[in-house]
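Retro notes
What went well: the complex prediction finally ran end to end.
Inputs used:
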Amino acid sequence: MNVPPAVLTVAYIITAVLFILGLQFLSSPKTARRGNILAMAGMVIAIVATALDTSIISWTDILTGAVIGAPIGFISARLVKMTAMPQMVALFNGAGGGAAALVSSGEFLKLLNAGTVPTLAQMVPIVLSCIIGSISFSGSLVAFAKLQELMTGRPITYAGQQIVNALVLLGIVGLVVVLLTGNATPGPFIGLIAASLLLGVLAVLPIGGADMPVVISLLNSFTGVAVAVTGFALNSTVLIISGTLVGASGTLLTMLMAKAMNRSLANVLFGAFGAVKSSGPQTAAESSGTVRSASADDVATLLAYSRNVIIAPGYGMAVAQAQHAVRELTQNLEKRGVDVKFAIHPVAGRMPGHMNVLLAEANVPYDQLHEMDEINPQFESADVALIIGANDVTNPAARNVPNSPIYGMPILDVDKAKNVVVLKRSMNPGFAGIDNPLYENPKTMMLFGDAKDSVSKLAAGVAAS
Amino acid sequence: MDLFLIQLTVFVLAVFVGYHVISKVPSMLHTPLMSATNAVHGIVIVGAMLVAGAAIGGAIGHAIGLAAMILGAINVVGGFAVTERMLEMFKGKAGPGQS
């Protein structure tokens, strides 16, 4: 079909506008779905426009690829559990990074087949896109494997790790120099991709499960940048704009997550946080050293006769699949006129905003979910702070124990509430392996057991009060 | 080099638009944001179509085009589907379908 290039350009501009509007609509839960649909429409327009491009002379590979890929994407998107959302996003992210690297490789092959010597302006974006896309691809796969518990979520470290990583990075730099100085041949190109894939794996291995929100955000931004650079290689404005939007988004989320843990990005990437069990006593001086254990009935009574309850959920709640029981408890409390709010720490869960999705799935209305900065001043007037499966984000050591690994991290001020109830499986330390003096606070009651089981008992207890 | 400069302009402007738009998204919606941006970078499927459709030739050319298409399609379809699934769960207090 003969479509003037101007028509295609206009179509791509519309796509870019729809993507931007779509993301803008994500600024409120009321309009967010509309935003997603706008972005979807933008994607359809871009695909249709590309289908009309005269440079497409064969449809076999396009259709075969779409017929294989689309159902895989759709079915996994429908089937994935909300708790597994981080690894799902990691996979889709890796797919995008891999696609970007492949597209640039194809572009490189095209230049080679044309028999001309590729210019520097052609090679630079191709090389960059291959490096970043490959790192994003393999890094996302390792992040997936960690989150899916196909391998240990703990940091994997070994002697000389950073030297090995530095050597691989040096190798990449060396190959780039070779490729850009007139030696654009398949050999070094394949070597470059192999080294980049290796670096992606090596870079994510030493990062612990609790740091995954940062890593996933960072990989997200990597894929965005890879796609933008691919846009430079293909002279495609829509790829540049879209990729850059994603790159900006991922970068912003990465910075927010690192800030929420009071750690620099370098520390997350190279610190192997949680690799070593914390050494030395870190308990605050004022703690009594004893832990007060309570029964479900005691806690249910306490909750039933409170006016304000703030629930601080953590990833442990999701692991125990306790969200629905939590919703039931909330409803039973509200029937008695108790005001219930949720305090959401920015790094609760395994990716940014994960906890909100898990609670939304359990039909908790989003008006009840409050961000840390908004809810922290309210703990003082709360009768009960109920902590379900959260640990480090409630640890007062972050505030007052300078030698604690999490010192300086912003936390939920649960210990300011009149009563603190902690639902916990056992006295084992949390993901980061740090003692929590909150448990020894005289106003803290511990309710041991499976979170789902405990919350169900509380819900029943409150209903019976 | 002119073309490159135009692209660079677009890139720099997109950085600012991106930063501006994304910073307005509340943390409550950060997971859907991430999966939506995930779907948006699926735009690489456009590049995949061009590579796969150009019939670069040779088994390697086919393999690269096909693999890029498969990954791109997974990215686009999966990204949008999972975002839609998450967003339909977000309901306000007075929202319809409230249990």
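What we learned: The CA atoms of residues 98 and 137 of chain A lie 5 Å apart.
What to try next: split runs per interface for comparison.
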